[in-house]
């Protein structure tokens, strides 16, 4: 199972999002863990690679599993660790090979185009102070089939 880590960086009631070319959907910067990394090491490294920002003291906010299902078959599965952070160093990258970086007001995030599961994740992370978890199933064309969340 592939593992990924991402981080919602909050700065003055805004968060940094990444507009990905696929579907034009917005996502949280982050990426795949490397062999032997802790989830915190992975999120710091991936965030720096994508944004040029060094996040400081990220806090685990959610743990989620994602499954891609085609018919009765599971064709892909991964686990995502989502952190939040209010402190960082550095200057935002002018270019990101993964897409376009953009600061967005927190109250506008729910209106951005994104995967439906991501919308549910944002909502629960912003409404809860404890770690939330969930499981999401999608079709190969990124349609949400079902989900469960523990609040």
Cα gyration radius (Å): 15 Å
| Highest-level CATH class | Alpha Beta
Q: What is the terminal-to-terminal distance?
A: 24 Å
Strand content: over 45%
Q: Which quaternary structure do these chains form? A: single chain
Overall structural class, as computed from helix and strand content, comes to alpha+beta
Task: Work out the helicity level.
Answer: 10-25%
Helix and strand pattern:
EEEEHEEEEEHEE
CATH topology title: Nucleoside Triphosphate Pyrophosphohydrolase
Domain count, please report it: 1
Unreliable stretches (pLDDT < 50, length at least 5) are none
Instruction: Let me know the CATH homologous superfamily.
Output: Nucleoside Triphosphate Pyrophosphohydrolase
Strand tally: 11
Sheet of most strands: 9 strands, mixed
Global shape:
globular
GO molecular function: hydrolase activity
Protein name: NUDIX hydrolase
InterPro entries: Nudix_hydrolase, NUDIX_hydrolase-like_dom_sf, NUDIX_hydrolase_dom
Cofactor: Mg(2+)
């Amino acid at each position: 199972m592939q593992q990924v880590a991402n981080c919602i960086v909050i700065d003055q009631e805004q968060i940094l999002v990444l507009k990905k070319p696929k579907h034009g959907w917005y996502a949280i910067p982050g990426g795949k863990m490397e062999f032997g990394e802790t989830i915190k090491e992975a999120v710091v490294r991936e965030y720096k690679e994508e944004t040029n920002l060094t996040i400081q003291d990220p806090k685990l906010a959610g743990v989620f599993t994602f499954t891609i299902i085609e018919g009765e078959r599971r064709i892909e599965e991964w686990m995502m660790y989502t952190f939040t952070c209010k402190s960082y160093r550095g200057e935002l990258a002018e270019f990101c090979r993964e897409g376009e970086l953009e600061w967005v007001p927190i109250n506008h995030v729910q209106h951005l185009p994104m995967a439906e599961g991501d919308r549910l994740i944002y909502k629960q992370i912003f409404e809860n102070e404890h770690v939330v978890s969930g499981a999401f199933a999608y079709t190969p064309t990124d349609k949400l089939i079902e989900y469960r969340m523990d609040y």
